[in-house]
Amino acid sequence: MRKGVMVVLACMLIVLTLSVNVSCNKSPATETISFDKKDVKVIAHRGLSGLEVENTDSAFIVAGAHSYYGIETDLRRTADGKFVICHDDTLYRLSGQNVAIESTALNELLSIPLYDKNTETPGEERLTTLDSYIEICKRYDKQAILELKSNFTEEEIVRIVEIINAHDYIDKVTFISFGYDNLLYVRKVLPNHSVQYLFSTLSNKIVDMLIRDKIDVAINHKDLTQKALKKFHDAGLKVNCWTVDEKADAEKLANWGVDYITTNILE
């Protein structure tokens, strides 16, 4: 009897171990996850970053081939006064090289190999440029959701707009930023243009500021309430929720009636 119990326990331990190994070694995503989006416009975060290396031409092209309304990306200045697409302020997470974006010239940044998706092995992907991003958005007729990461000057905003205008695509660009001055500069250069203020924590001060300045909302989805959503909508503001990767969360927000959902993998 005792021997039988030991055998059963041993078998249970093997099954448990196998379950843990399977859960810890999930295969990378190979396709998007569909959800009932109602009338929500869905935005691919840093391109289709759930499948491709974030903020690369490949991520933008794959997003373009899907049903997304828009493709989001991040823009920073470089040491030589140019602009590069990158979320972080260094390349350490993406390449293992602790290279500061704003202290490095554009051509050097574009030469650094990025890790392949879900590995720490340098591959073929590289950072890309504003020109390339806009060209891809235009090729696939996607709204360009351009996050201004650096604290740009008004003169730099003018140059960014000029680059986009060279592609005849400014009407299909929405500027978003955690830096409120960036958005005010955009509005100074392009009055009434589509801009969204990024923030994580809802407060009455932010609500009143956005309503006063008629600036749309880009909020961490976990902090949005139905009451706040109604107040924004009643003021004529659109609401973008980021970054939503769980189907249940996305469908809840769609049922609430948010305008946009930004996601790494949902579609």
Description:
The chain has 267 residues and is an alpha/beta fold. It has a single domain (32-263), classed as Phosphatidylinositol (PI) phosphodiesterase (TIM Barrel, Alpha-Beta Barrel), CATH 3.20.20.190. Helices cover 39% and strands 16% of the residues. The protein is built from ten helices and nine strands. It has helices at 2-24, 57-64, 92-95, 106-111, 130-139, 154-166, 180-189, 204-213, 226-234, 247-256; strands at residues 41-44, 70-77, 83-85, 143-148, 173-177, 195-199, 216-220, 239-242, 260-263. An eight-stranded parallel beta barrel has the order 1-2-4-5-6-7-8-9, surrounded by five helices. Helix 6 links the parallel strand 4 (143-148) and strand 5. Helix 2 (57-64) packs parallel to helix 5 and helix 6 (154-166) crosses helix 7 (180-189). It is globular.
CATH topology: TIM Barrel
Low-confidence stretches: 5-25
The mean pLDDT is: 92
Structural class assignment: alpha/beta
Text of the CATH class: Alpha Beta
